[in-house]
Write a structure and sequence with these properties.
The protein is of the alpha/beta class and 259 residues long. The protein folds into two domains: 203 residues, 3-Layer(aba) Sandwich (Rossmann fold); 34 residues, no CATH class. 41% of the residues lie in helices and 13% in strands. Strand 4, helix 4 and strand 5 form a beta-alpha-beta unit. Helix 1 crosses helix 7. The longest helix is centred in the middle third of the chain and has 29 residues. The chain is globular. The protein binds nicotinamide-adenine-dinucleotide (NAD).
């Protein structure tokens, strides 16, 4: 077991990639603080399944007081923190024309500011346990699409946070690394695309340019790398940002892949 007796906080773990990470953490021997925005039923069902290894705390990360409450909830439930996975994010559309200042600020608050202040609040505990941080970014951090402007900016900021703290916190024994998932098929993603007008069977009809494997990445496939980053096996590596996409994000000639 890679995480035996460790306590890991996984934000946004009531569903999707966070849920898959939380399940793998428990399978690897850890206790997990399940966190989400307001999905109480989902969170309670997951905790019931995971048993004593899981505790639930719902909190809106746009609230500046949430990071302190989340850390306090983990300490109240388990007494220590051995790892933090900043996974929660607003995943939504927005372009230059339709993004309001309020909308933009909310993306930054949840996707960029909250991870930084969660690390700050967890610092005394992580320093004590020499526990790592894994941030879940996105390949959109490098540029992103026209209709993912505030989301992409928020993930670009997160990537800089990872590299900065991956450097400065390492001296204190805390490794900070990041995975940038490509396109992952979660239940929410399935629904989001249908809300955007795609047919129910859209995951079976992804153009090969986006999916050379002819299928999307699964949440479990992202989770397995996150577990490796959290484990002692990953060694002293810090400040790494690893793209988990089906093709290279930099240097690919898109014209070759048009169909
Ligand atoms: P999801 O929408 O399925 O789940 C998001 C989670 O974040 C939920 O638990 C939700 O409650 C929580 N959350 C959202 N807003 C919140 C808020 N204001 N306060 C507290 N919690 C909040 O998302 P997902 O697709 O599983 O994505 C998980 C992570 O992976 C995100 O960081 C996302 O940016 C990243 N990612 C996803 C994909 C993809 O294709 N699904 C691709 C690249 C990166």
């Amino acid at each position: 077991m890679k995480l035996k007796d460790k306590t890991i906080i996984v934000t946004g773990s009531t569903m999707g990639i966070g849920e898959a990470i939380a399940r793998r953490c428990v399978a690897e021997g850890a206790r997990v603080l399940i966190h989400g925005l307001d999905e109480r039923e989902l969170g309670e069902a997951l905790c019931a399944e995971l048993g004593e290894a899981a505790a639930l705390h719902l909190d809106d990360l746009s609230d500046t007081a949430a990071p302190a409450r989340i850390i306090a909830a983990a300490i109240a439930a388990f007494g220590s923190i051995d790892g933090l996975v900043n996974n929660a994010a607003i995943v939504a559309q927005g372009n230059l024309e339709d993004t309001t200042t309020e909308h933009f600020d909310r993306f930054i608050a949840v996707n960029t500011r909250a991870p930084m202040f969660l690390i700050k609040e967890a610092l005394p505990y992580l320093e004590k346990s020499q526990g790592p941080v894994v941030n879940i970014g996105s390949v959109n951090a490098y540029c992103g699409e026209e209709n993912l402007l505030p989301y992409s900016i928020s993930k670009g900021g997160l990537q800089t946070l990872t590299r900065n703290l991956g450097d400065t916190l390492h001296r204190r024994g805390i490794r900070v690394n990041q995975v940038n998932p490509g396109w992952v098929l979660t239940k929410q993603e399935q629904q989001r695309r249908m809300d955007q007008g795609m047919e129910e069977n859209w995951p079976t009809r992804i153009p090969v340019a986006y999916s050379p494997a002819r299928r999307l990445i699964t949440p479990e496939e992202i989770a397995s790398t996150v577990i490796h980053f959290l484990s002692a096996e990953f060694g002293p590596i810090s400040g790494a940002v690893v793209d988990l996409e089906q093709y290279p994000m930099i240097g690919r000639n898109p014209l070759k892949h048009l169909e």
